[in-house]
Amino acid sequence: MTFLNPLLVFGVAACTIPLIIHLLNRSRFRSVDWAAMHLLESVISTNRRRFRFDQWILLLIRCAIPALLALCLARPVLTGSGFLAGNAPVSLVILLDNSYSMEVADPAGTRFQAAVEAACQIIGAASRGSEYAVIQMGGSPTPVFDRPVFDAGTVIQRLRQLQPGYGACDVSASLDQALAVLNGMSNARRELVVISDFQPADWQQLQSEGAAVLKQRLAELKVPPELTLLPIAPPDTSTGRETQPANIAIESLELPRHAIGAGQQISVRASIRNYGIAEIPSARILLKHNDREVAVVQTALQPSGITQVLFPFQFEQPGSQVLSVEVVSADPLPTDNHLSASVNIWKSLQVVLVDGAPGSLPLQSETDYLSIALTPLTFGRMELKDLILTTTVPPAGLSDDLLKVAGTVVLANIPQLTDPQLLSLTQFVQRGGTLLICAGNRMDLNWHREKLFADGRGLLPAAWGELRGANEEPSGAVPSTAPVADTEPPARIVSRRFDHPALQFFNEPANGDLSSASIRRWYAVVAASPVSDNSTNNDKTASQASPANSAPAAVPRSETAVAEKPTDAATESVSAALTVMAQLDNGSPLLIEKRVGDGVVVQLTTACDADWSDLPLRPFYVPLMQQLLTTMAEQVMPPRNIRTGEPAVALFAAPPATADSAAGVVTNVAPPTLPSTAAPVEATESQPAAVDFLTTSVTTPDGGRRSVPVTVRDQLYESRYEATQRPGLYTLTLPAGAVEHFVAGTSRQESDLQLLSQTQCRELAAGLSATLVPTARQYLEQDALRRYGQEIWKYFLAGLLAFLLLEMVLQQKFAGVRS
Amino acid sequence: MAHASDVLSSRDLGRIGGLQLLARQVVEGFASGLHRSPHKGFSVEFREHRTYVPGDDIRTIDWKLFGKTDRLFIREYEEETNLRCTILMDCSGSMGYRGTRSNGLSRHEYGVRTAACLAHLMLQQQDSVGLVTFDTKIRRYIPPRARPRHLNAIIEELSLAQPGEETALADVVQQIVARIQRRGLVVVISDLFGDVDQLMKALAQFRHANHEVLLFQIWDPDELDFPFRQWTQFASLENPAVRHLVDPAQLRRAYLEKLTEFRERLAQGCSRQRISLVSLTTDQPWSDSLAAWLSIRRRGR
Fold first, then answer.
1. Facing residues of A319 across strands?
2. Exposure string (b/e) for A682-711, b if CB count within 10 Å is 16 or more?
3. Chain A within 8 Å of B165 (Cβ-Cβ)?
4. Full pLDDT tens readout for chain B, 301 residues
5. Are A469 and A490 in contact (CB under 8 A)?
6. B230 contacts in chain A (CB < 8 Å)
């Protein structure tokens, strides 16, 4: 207990006043010679003890009265634990939910405004010398200031400028960051205030086992903070859901995963979720292309369900473009009524076919089928334009110049390459090129194993193993050096659900049945790791599928990416994910994908012409190869549709200062004639040098423009914008005026406007040992209570009055003592 | 009987004289207020006629009646002094209480004045008055006489009496009953403090002896309303060893209850014994006591 007027506590000494009066009275008594002693004596003798007792009680009460009065005036305060100076500065961390669900408009304004107001109130009421940190929880946790600041005015000013509309709260990451920030703060009192609308989707993870972990972590801090939860709830939670119109959200917008060319017909699939319990009979759904309305659909939205809408669309122009879907609705949360996606429309995809077995007759050459398959329209002399442009060269023709313009290289049955060629090719892939390696009878297996595979360090995903399948050799073929196994029946592609984006097209049976093709000859492959050999040898399904298969099934057949187990340091350094995209029914892989640097290499274990299989004769050969190559090309592009918080990266080739006449094409981000590179940047990579003479700028979703530094990366320039926490459209303007659109998306789980009920909030708070306060005012009261304790002078006053009354009553009562 | 001036100082004499003067003033003022002259003497009052029998004093024959009726009648008169009054003056220590509101008089002094007034009045009426002063025993007994000079003796004795000792009324009464043979009026001037039952038992002896009893109970106002506020040490007047330091405020109500009870018991006892009880307070005028006496006399007639 402490006192606000500590000096007045000395007033307790006033309790001696009645005592002194009593003693004075007793000492300065009057003497009376009394006659009626027989009356007096009988009264005294029967009540003597009681008189003494009564006198004691009265004396105590009379002493207590001035003491109580003094205590009352001293304004005593009950402090819970220990004695803390009430106005001690505090280290305050506020976790502010700025997810887009906070944009829900209540009659008094949006929830975010209420949250900011609450935060401002809390900060404004903190004592001088307090330090503040505000962390926005939306998307990824983002501190408003780099380090805790001491100026409440600045914080409040900044808080009022904040905007909601960020992605779903990352609660655990935010709490992690908050704890880290708290640990670095200096004041003895630590406060952690979470201001959020407490949507179940965000907080459910904390309700179960997460709470205990967090509680323990809080307790383990050097100075455990006081955790307070401040839900910004709608004014009336019980009836809010019924009276408010139900929320409608566009959940997803699906575009083809492969490269899209101008003029190509694609379909855009939008999923619209109706969170309400009533059907919406006709909702208008708009498709917008670069903010221009291009299609409208009216459809009924099922209650509490997802409705899918399919828009056919055709892009006219190449380049980076934005497609958005919007549902016209007057629901409380307009933010999620539209969803955008950025699409890169290719002008053309340059493919270099390196033909290892050229032939003079039609369709005899190794790459003829492939060439036709990739450019069916050109071959058919039709008006429509192919996306892919092919160039066929012999192995010796693979030059640096050719690689500079190529996006994709296909090595079809080549015996070997020269070392400089291999080096150029490796660099090409490292930069972000795509490479398809097809098997064939002319391959120099030794060169392939030593140079191209190089124990997993090379480009080849898996070393060629045993040649299997039918024994007969097509006429005119150069005898292979590879050992040929006994005649085996032709294999077929295992037909099942394909997870790889390149083959997802064939999940639709109408688009062709891959298993109809018969593969007569193929190479088994050997992965670099012997350990994986063992593990796959024991695979029961492999032996069942192909009892005659004596060769080891070298590559793990799991669909998921399997990292090779490191056998030595060298292997480890190049270890990359191998993905088996398609498999044969005897267990051998057909398509293996490997990422090398920024690029992708795909290995086809059979020939790409009709010599070893009838693949080229099947109708699906064209879409298969098209899908394969376009998806590969799209895969290596830096992603345009990013998650919030991921960097928006644009690569471009020539600086505009040195741009020649082809600048319009060249400066386009990742133009088709240039190799595109993948976004991930290894941590080990040295810091790229900044380029001063180039400037790019970004337009953020809230309309602001910022300049983005340009760095040199390999032979390209990179413009990288990191602060994509806010969902929406980021437009990078490149030096030549070309634009690159990025759409930062976020989970739509925030669209479910259901909030944690009060009971759930209480449970959550109890699980975290946190205090739950409905308003900032209550927080301040709680805080004052924690800080100053509870003022209890009222009780003292009540006690004082009670004692006064008691004194009077007792005096009356005692005077009436019966004899 | 020694003259008063032999044993008394001039101051005492002055006090006695004052007492005499006071008694006369009070009685005369009182009597004049009654519109009835005390000087007429009712000892010559006619009572009845009786037939003459030989041996009767011929002076008592009513000759006027003989002239009218031709028969001899004796004219009989009331006895000249038929009241023998004994005043019992309590001189115990408790009579020495001197309150603040009693005009500086102690209870004893008040009682003495009351007694003097009564004596004076009765002697003026040709009644015989005696005096007994007592505490634990009889201090002095002056037998009743009707001579006017008897007043001096009574007043002298009264003025010389000083309060002291304790009270033992019961013993005293026994002795007095033995001494007063003729029936008469017994006036007790006392505070009557003590055990009520014993007191009543003692007074009953007077009643058995056919005495008429008049109790003048003298109170001090302090004893009736207990006005003390501050801490007070009460010391007994009769036994100075008995002292009590108390907070009077605490006691007051209990004391008053006790007092009421005491007075009620006293009144009940008196009415049962057909004893007249007159309460006087020391701030009252003495004439009140005379009025009470007269009313009782009239009633008794």
1. A345
2. eeeeeebeebeebebebbbbeeeeeebebb
3. no
4. 334 444 444 554 455 555 666 666 666 655 544 433 333 333 456 667 888 888 888 888 889 999 999 999 988 765 554 578 889 988 888 888 888 887 788 888 888 888 888 888 778 777 788 999 988 888 888 888 888 788 888 888 888 888 877 777 777 888 888 888 777 888 888 888 888 888 888 888 888 888 888 888 999 888 888 888 878 888 888 887 888 888 888 788 888 888 999 999 999 999 998 888 888 888 887 777 777 767 766 665 4
5. yes
6. 25, 28-30
The tokens describing A168, both together, are 């779903």
Q: How far, in Å, CA of A399 to CA of A425, rounded?
A: 9
Contact B220 A35 (CB under 8 A): yes
Q: What is the pLDDT of residues A505-536, one digit of tens each?
A: 888 888 888 888 888 888 888 765 443 333 33
**pLDDT per residue as tens digits for the range A682-698:** 433 444 566 666 778 88
Q: Span A553-570, mean pLDDT?
A: 40
CA distance A67 to chain B (A): 24
Q: Please check the confidence at residue A805 and state whether its pLDDT lies above 90.
A: yes
- Nearest Cα residue to B165 out of B133, B134, B135: B135
In CATH terms, are A90-240+753-788 and A352-635 the same topology?
A: yes
User: Rounded to a whole number, what is the distance in Å from the CA of B90 to chain A's nearest CA?
Assistant: 13
| Predicted ipTM of the assembly | 0.72
Distance CA B105, CA B125 (A): 28
- Nearest alpha-carbon partner for B215 in B118, B79, B105: B118
Helical packing angle, B10-33 and B150-160, nearest 10°: 120
CATH for A352-635, among 3.30.1460.10, 2.40.40.10, 3.90.180.10, 3.40.50.880? Answer: 3.40.50.880
The CATH topology of domain A248-268+284-346 is Immunoglobulin-like (2.60.40)
Instruction: Give the number of residues written for chain A.
Output: 819
Domain chopping of chain B, boundaries: 4-34+81-300, 42-77
Spell out the residues 6+ positions from residue B3 whose beta carbon is closer than 8 angstroms to its own.
none
In the structure encoding, which two tokens stand for residue A752, read together?
Answer: 């479910």
* Whole-Å CA distances, A43 to A36, A49, A148, A815, B36: 12, 11, 79, 12, 49
Q: Among A310-319, A376-385, A407-416, whose mean pLDDT is lowest? A: A376-385
Closest by CA position to A192, among listed A146, A225, A159: A225
Mean per-residue pLDDT over chain A, rounded: 76
Report how far residue A779's alpha carbon sits from residue A441's, in angstroms, rounded to the nearest whole number: 78
Question: Which residue from B minimizes the CA distance to A47?
Answer: B251
Q: Is B184 on the interface with A (CB under 8 A)?
A: no
- B262/A contact by beta carbon, under 8 A: yes
A81 CA: distance to closest CA in chain B (Å): 47
Residue A183 CA to residue A112 CA, distance in Å, equals 27
Task: Express each pLDDT in A462-505 by its tens digit.
Answer: 888 888 877 655 444 444 444 544 567 888 888 778 888 888 88
Q: Where are the alpha helices (DSSP H) in A360-504?
A: 368-374, 376-379, 400-405, 419-431, 445-447
In chain A, what are the domain boundaries? Answer: 2-79+792-815, 90-240+753-788, 248-268+284-346, 352-635, 641-745
The DSSP H or E segment spanning B176 is helix B169-179
Please give the CATH topology (third level) of the domain spanning B4-34+81-300.
Rossmann fold (3.40.50)
Tokens at B203, concatenated? 């007074």
Does residue A492 contact residue A517 with C-beta atoms inside 8 Å? yes
Q: Which residue has the tokens 């810091």?
A: A687
Give yes or no for a contact between A448 and A416, defined as CB atoms under 8 angstroms apart: yes
pTM (2 decimals)? Answer: 0.55
Domain A90-240+753-788, second-level architecture? 3-Layer(aba) Sandwich (3.40)
